[in-house]
Amino acid sequence: MDIPLFLPLSRNSLGLAILLPCFIIAYYMLRSQRSKLADFPVVGKRDSADFRAALEEGCRMYPDSAYILPTPIRPTVILPATLVDEVIRQPEDVLATREEVDDRFLAKYTLLTADDHMIRRSVNLITRNVSEIMNDIAHELDLDISKALNVDTAWKSTNIHTAILQLVAQINSRVFVGLELSQNVEWVDAIINYTVQVMIAVQKLLEYPTFLHSVVQYLLPEIRTIHQSLASCCRLLQPVLDERKQNLAEPFFKKPKDMIQGVIDYAPEGRGSVLEFQGRSQMILGLASTHTTSITLENALYDLAANPQCLQPLRDELEKMIEQDGGNLLVKSFTMLRKMDSFLRESQRMNPVDLLSLRRKTKVAKKFCDGTKVPAGTSIAIPVSIVRNDGTLTNPDVFDAFRFQKLGDAEGNLNKYLYVNTDANSLGFGHGVHACPGRFFAAIEVKLILAHILLHYDIKFADGIQRPKTTYYGTNIGPNLDVEIMLRKRVKGTS
Ligand code: HEM
């Protein structure tokens, strides 16, 4: 009997024939990466929902040397604080920022790829004109805030999360893309949803091995929603972009100092005028700015409600400034609000938006000055929490609202302890060339809203309610969705 040389393959065995070699390659790649990192101790478990405890343990056990946090995608080598300055000095071809972000957010599937040079320059354009822009919109804020909070003169228990998120997304849109789009609910929702869908899509994709992501992406509703958000952004942006292009052809047109213009002016090869490129860039800017700012503000409000003794000093400072400025809240004077500035720095120190900072990917094998050797293709980071343990602050585990004002006064160095100032011990906005370029704008936005709330509302937690603990997913912060705070409109002459 003749035996056929090639037996016909069933569907299952064909699938197995394709998948098996892939599994084997993936297994050996993972093993080889792991064996390269075998010298480092591992702290924590890969499936931890929250890496806070592991990071605290790691910093306690290895304060001066590196260890591994077994984060998803690939493990992260956590470096000691002594290497901050060396990390920030490395060029992109040694320690890459962009590639690390692309990896962590699976940018190929979540559409998060951007030209960071262009994004930074666009954000800087806003920053240079931030006082002018924010003064323009300060008077609109009164209306927006009371609409968002929706409380009267009687105490009301309120969940502020959605209200603050919408408010921040709207103010950011007002500054980034103009009044018309900022008032469009579909635009604001698309910007907010993009971030949420990216986070969920990344988590879901990570349930599958990397080599299956290109297939699994088509099965995930979140990836479809991301594409729909982009389509909505582009549709809504089109008339605004068309009008901008027409205006730019006019000889005396004064360019607006917004993100649309930043992307047009700074995108490589004139791509900023292309609708899809603009849409993607605006969504990425929305991702970088919306949840980070709203969570920072929510935390500040929780700290305010939990520390009622801070209300009067903060109000006194504000009222003095308003009097000096002739009865108006002027953005240019915000740096003089030293108590509020210190309060925000302390609030962010206790609750940063990410447990890790200075995340990079090694492009080549890198030997650090303390002898730590990290192989090429490795994720590295430094914990933000080091500032709480660095030995320079008294009672670092206690919230002390005005500690940075006192420190600035005592050392005669006001700038060193300002909210927006980054240094090796203050990594809440990163540090070095890749430190958050939006922090100057964010600081003004947060101060403007906080000032309004301080002047026009009373705030506290209901009796017996404590300040809620911040929730973390992996190393990222997650808003605590269940918290309610008590608010009421202030009546002149009472407090
Ligand atoms: C309070 C609010 C904010 C916080 C806490 C925050 C925090 C951060 C942090 C920790 C980084 C990483 C820095 C590093 O890796 O060294 C970052 C980067 C970045 N942020 Fe922010 N951010 C905030 C608001 C904003 C806003 C409003 C914008 C835009 C207007 C913005 C735009 C960016 C951009 C573009 C980057 C990437 C910079 C680069 O890689 O060169 N951020 N931010």
Automatic annotation (TrEMBL):
The keyword Zinc-finger does not apply. Its cofactor is heme. The chain crosses the membrane at residues 12-30. Keywords: Heme, Iron, Membrane, Metal-binding, Monooxygenase, Oxidoreductase, Transmembrane, Transmembrane helix. Heme binds at C436. One of its GO terms (molecular function) is heme binding. PANTHER family: CYTOCHROME P450, CYTOCHROME P450 MONOOXYGENASE AN1598-RELATED. This is Cytochrome P450. It comes from Periconia macrospinosa. Belongs to the cytochrome P450 family. Pfam families: p450.
